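Researcher: Good morning. I'm working through a list of sequences from a screen, and I'd like to move beyond sequence-only analysis. For each chain I'm collecting a predicted structure so we can compare shapes side by side. This is the next one on the list. No need for commentary yet; just the structure.
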Amino acid sequence: MRVTNQLCSDVVVLTAGAVLAAGPPETVLNSPEVVAAYIGRGDSRSEEQVGSE
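Model: Good morning. Structure tokens for this chain:
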């Protein structure tokens, strides 16, 4: 991620073809939505299971 922060003034993160977050790399890469979509929430439930509750 250091390279992204050094080279880009703005980044756009997509999920399922839609913009999830856009803006400065530090802000976007620390966004809870981006972390949840690309790294996970830290529990074993899938996104579908969480959304159906």
